[in-house]
Amino acid sequence: MTAPNLLVELFVEELPPKALQKLGDAFAGVLHEQLAAQGLAGAGSRVTAYASPRRLAAHVTQVLAAAPDKAVSQKLMPVAVGLDAQGQATPALLKKLAALGLDAAALGGLKRVNDGKAEVLFHESMARGATLAEGLQKALDEAIAKLPIPKVMRYQLQDGWSSVHFVRPAHGLVALHGSEVVTGVQALGLTAGRETHGHRFEAQAESIALRDADSYAQQLREEGAVIASFAERRAEIARQLAAAAAQVGGGVRPIEDDALLDEVTALVERPNVLVCAFEEEFLAVPQECLILTMKANQKYFPLLDGQGRLTHRFLVVSNISPQDPTAVIQGNERVVRPRLADAKFFFDQDRKKPLASRVEQLAKVVYHNKLGTQGERVERVRHIAKAIAAQLFDALAGQHAEQLDSDSGELAREYLLTCVDNAALLAKADLVTDMVGEFPELQGVMGSYYAVGDGLPDEVAHAIEDHYKPRFAGDELPRENVGLVVALADKLETLVGMFGIGNLPTGDRDPFALRR
């Protein structure tokens, strides 16, 4: 006969979105692991994790009402220590038996086993298997204790005196074994029952009485307007994003960003994707600025055309599904407009001063208290870059000597060295611009745009952006030799400087990415 399935749910206030998937997987994984360790879930048992903004849950198949009794063989002590010459128990053995709740009458039941060195006394007994209520209580306590909580909250319970620590205040606990409540189970000041809650605004009723463990996901979807599974919700958002882009037409597609998709999945319980738009005049701002502000600040999905260029339309994943979404669309369009206007303002203000005029300000920006300012660092990078550029040119000139005469060779060398020196000088200048001050992720990118606006050669503009590359494993490399030289110089300066002052990477800390 197949054992019933188990459903455990913690209903809480809105969980941190960037941690939700890990919290859900950890909660279900530890719960299942602990039930299996106590013999309540067998080898054929499977667990399904559920995680939405307001709940962590686990569905475990084939869970026993009580674990089977288990034979326990406990090693006591060597026979020579436990028995005297007449075969009677020594005080040491009697003390050991008393600790186990036994007396001298148990002497006849002891077993002698040779462990290869000497005869040893063992006591054999049957340990009662844990009931589901006992085992689930232990498993639930362990699952809560082991949650990878980014920041713990302390909050007061309803009695006004007690307080507990958890990621967010918890308001409900469900524990169903088949259709029966597992009585006596408690956690975070809550007692297990069968009632949960659906969508904050769109559920059919304030509370949902779950029929049994297996109806959890279906009842939440139908009565509570909630897609409980993180994976299902994520897939539904991806489907709606693609459908909305197809509805817009023109070959547009939503930007691909798995981290953004995961975060939005953790923010909504039943997604509804809507198409919005902003004024096309904002497209004069570099698209990286607009995309970043829409993604980072508003969690929107910008739409790109077939050539990867930003369009004036974007997609919003709403948590409500009104019959007329006009107010929701207009609200999101109204919210994004000031963000884009800020980006345009920063861009316009930055372009009023040439990039070279900002180099002096780097003398006021501290790089490291033992390595000086960014201005001093720039000078070190310039010297290293010019030395690398000279060696690189000599190596390349040797390979193509027949194609270069003395005049053209000298001009090419001078051009390379000049471009490298300019790029190294200006590489960090955008750190003191308004745009990078607001969006540090755009360092290098904005410097490249401003260099183009100042009429600098493409090699210099590209090098300003590319000298940060590669930023991660598998990232693109600099496009031209100028960028390659400055990138090498920048990284060599960092390595030598940090190792020189003893700032070495450790097993869990590498703030300057020296390993990369």
Could you characterize what this model shows?
The chain has 516 residues and is of the alpha+beta class. It folds into four domains: 6-66 and 131-222, no CATH class; 71-127, no CATH class; 230-350, no CATH class; 355-500, Hypothetical protein af1432 (Orthogonal Bundle), CATH 1.10.3210. Helices cover 40% and strands 18% of the residues. The protein has 15 helices and 20 strands. The protein has helices spanning 20-37, 79-82, 91-99, 132-145, 216-222, 230-248, 258-265, 287-298, 326-350, 374-399, 406-426, 434-438, 445-453, 458-466, 481-500; strands spanning 6-12, 47-52, 55-60, 70-78, 111-114, 119-127, 153-156, 163-166, 170-177, 180-181, 186-187, 190-191, 195-196, 208-209, 253-254, 272-277, 301-304, 310-318, 366-368, 372-373. Strands 2-3-1-9-10 form a five-stranded antiparallel sheet, covered by helices on one side. The chain has a four-stranded antiparallel sheet with strand order 15-17-18-16, sandwiched between helices. A hairpin with a 2-residue loop joins strand 2 (47-52) and strand 3. Helix 11 packs across helix 14 (458-466) and helix 14 packs parallel to helix 15 (481-500). The radius of gyration is 33 Å and the shape is flat.
Write the layout of secondary structure elements.
Blueprint: E1 6-12, H1 20-37, E2 47-52, E3 55-60, E4 70-78, H2 79-82, H3 91-99, E5 111-114, E6 119-127, H4 132-145, E7 153-156, E8 163-166, E9 170-177, E10 180-181, E11 186-187, E12 190-191, E13 195-196, E14 208-209, H5 216-222, H6 230-248, E15 253-254, H7 258-265, E16 272-277, H8 287-298, E17 301-304, E18 310-318, H9 326-350, E19 366-368, E20 372-373, H10 374-399, H11 406-426, H12 434-438, H13 445-453, H14 458-466, H15 481-500
Antiparallel strand pairs: 1-3, 1-9, 2-3, 4-6, 5-6, 7-8, 9-10, 11-12, 13-14, 15-17, 16-18, 17-18, 19-20
Helix pairs in contact: 1-4, 6-7, 8-9, 10-11, 10-15, 11-14, 11-15, 13-14, 14-15
